[in-house]
Amino acid sequence: MADSETHDTHADTTESINDSTASTGDEATRIGVDVGGTFTDVALSVDDRLVTAKVPSTDPQHLGVLEGLYKACDRANIDPSEIDEFAHAMTVSVNALLERGGAKTALVTTEGFRDVLEIGRQDRPDLYDLEAEKPEPVVPRERRFEIDERTTPEGVETPVDPDDVRDLATTLRERDVEAVAICLLHAYADPENERIVAETLREELEVPVSASNEVLAEFREFERTSTTAVDAYVRPAIDTYVGRLVEEAEDAGVPAPQIMQANGGIADPETVREHAVTTTMSGPAAGVVGAAATVDDADTEGLVTFDMGGTSSDVSLVRDGQAARTTDAEIAGLPIRTPMVDVNTVGAGGGSIAWVDAGGALRVGPQSSGADPGPACYGRGGTDPTVTDANVVLGYIGPETALGGEMTLDVEAAHDALEGLAEEAGLESALEAARGVYRVANATMTRTIRSVTVERGHDPREFALVAFGGAGPMHATALADALEVDRVVVPRPGGVLSAFGLLAADESYDAVRTVGVGLDDAEKSRLEDVYDDLVGDVLADASDREAARVERAADCRYAGQSFELTVPVDESFDPQAVATRFHEAHEQAYGYAMSESIEIVNLRATATVPGTDPVVRHDGAGDALVGTREAHFPGIGTEPRKATVYARDRLEAGATISGPAVLEQAESTTVVPPTWAGEILADGTLVLTREGVDN
């Protein structure tokens, strides 16, 4: 067990409140609550203070949300009814997909296209695995129904018969379906038949109906069908959860929650209940938004955001202050084409279980101990060795540390769990097993960072690494060393940055429509008509049309290509400007541009109602020195080093830290190895640089 020498002025880490010397009293009181796989994080902005809290996630999730809300209000000494704005991110939809726990869904499609979901694309999950299997569709074949109709890209050829739809409604009612997805061939080009089917089924049935022209008015039948099916599949769960949370909030005197969408913007409850698929990456998106709001990337190529929680780690990019977005994503093997923050997730978090495979190799994750029983060190009956247990054995988390501000540690249980792993792996001790777990977890996360940087043409050495989540700051410098990144930034609310990101999020809505026309042949008036419709759609959802900022874009490609790049479009469509931007985007993405003709595939519009960034003041005061304890740093010798332990919230602006050191907060711990040094900025942000590297 690592030795621990405690200083007389041990900091109280049971409460995370950033007090200020004065209170203006005119700031809106806002709260953000983010549900993770293990913990539910809370950030409360009241006057000029930031109050944070962390509680175990619960099932159902809304119980933990309310517990965290009450806990933060109690710490801030306010009544919940004093909250002016409430923003929320959750994992309800993504859990339904990962666990296949969504609604009993039916799919209605054009005659002859019943098996689109099953056929998918010709690509394989593993090219050389002869036994590789594609993920099971969320709608089994016996609940996929065909209807006689035909629409081409030019319009309706065979109208749908409403009586056929009513007969189908009877069948669906007899099958006790809980949701219906409708995806008719080429409904993106002419939705008339699909609208008739949707309207008829909504009249006949008492279950949610998702129509592809409302979910994703975009070509590619498989992806459009998959996205629409996912929307229907998770919609009842989202509807029930959000409805219950709205009621509970009303009972507590709290405003209805604004829900974080996968695109990085918040929306009102009714909008997300009708467009459930937009919530699939709610929590990870909030973390990236929080990183973009708290860290200035002006001096770098951008930011690599690294969010390591209890169950998984999420990695993304921020460039020019904006989170990278994508419309080409998969969750649990299911294509989802709605706009979302481009996040890569890997099953390596603090609660990830370490194990030995059949070949004797040490592995970490993706299985997780969750919040209950959790890692062995939680003292809740867990016996599996986890990444958190390894960090305890390495000395990064001390025996006196109170996780989440209140959860005491069982250090002996952590050692016992790692000792058992060492025996199974043929290692000498629990310490050797902990070193191995730390290295394996870091290698997994390093590969994920390379996938969003090197594999996309970005040099990670030109980026700063922003570390957050409960476990992120413990591993960040090790990842930076592996990637040759010279600067690591840990925001002050790093342990709950996803919750903080909810406070900084804008309101955002997206719309898309396929046009499929050559740029040289495009009629400007036709494109402007489509843009007018798209802009009208997104502004209809905005809470304040006058304050909304509208951006237009186009998905373009060279003739003959099967993939597109999105480029911005001016207020008045300028073909030459679009061509120039596309050539530049193609060269940046792939290293070359071509002289081929350009096609406009989709037109897009986004409406954004800017939010108000929360005030983050840092007035570190008091003796920040907690003491020292022995810690081990894999890759820097085999002997333990005496690390100085600080209460991070008590470090004043301008304070400098030399490694080895450990900075403790209620919600997270930061490890500073011997080869790194840090400085506290005015807002409490910690900037770490490798010694000898010019900041």
TrEMBL record:
<feature type="compositionally biased region" description="Polar residues">
    <location>
        <begin position="14"/>
        <end position="25"/>
    </location>
</feature>
<dbReference type="InterPro" id="IPR008040">
    <property type="entry name" value="Hydant_A_N"/>
</dbReference>
<feature type="domain" description="Hydantoinase A/oxoprolinase">
    <location>
        <begin position="224"/>
        <end position="507"/>
    </location>
</feature>
<feature type="region of interest" description="Disordered">
    <location>
        <begin position="1"/>
        <end position="25"/>
    </location>
</feature>
<dbReference type="Pfam" id="PF01968">
    <property type="entry name" value="Hydantoinase_A"/>
</dbReference>
<feature type="domain" description="Acetophenone carboxylase-like C-terminal">
    <location>
        <begin position="528"/>
        <end position="676"/>
    </location>
</feature>
<dbReference type="InterPro" id="IPR043129">
    <property type="entry name" value="ATPase_NBD"/>
</dbReference>
<dbReference type="Pfam" id="PF19278">
    <property type="entry name" value="Hydant_A_C"/>
</dbReference>
<feature type="domain" description="Hydantoinase/oxoprolinase N-terminal">
    <location>
        <begin position="30"/>
        <end position="204"/>
    </location>
</feature>
<feature type="compositionally biased region" description="Basic and acidic residues">
    <location>
        <begin position="1"/>
        <end position="13"/>
    </location>
</feature>
<dbReference type="GO" id="GO:0006749">
    <property type="term" value="P:glutathione metabolic process"/>
</dbReference>
<dbReference type="GO" id="GO:0005829">
    <property type="term" value="C:cytosol"/>
</dbReference>
<dbReference type="InterPro" id="IPR049517">
    <property type="entry name" value="ACX-like_C"/>
</dbReference>
<dbReference type="GO" id="GO:0017168">
    <property type="term" value="F:5-oxoprolinase (ATP-hydrolyzing) activity"/>
</dbReference>
<dbReference type="InterPro" id="IPR045079">
    <property type="entry name" value="Oxoprolinase-like"/>
</dbReference>
<dbReference type="Pfam" id="PF05378">
    <property type="entry name" value="Hydant_A_N"/>
</dbReference>
<protein>
    <submittedName>
        <fullName>N-methylhydantoinase A</fullName>
    </submittedName>
</protein>
<dbReference type="InterPro" id="IPR002821">
    <property type="entry name" value="Hydantoinase_A"/>
</dbReference>
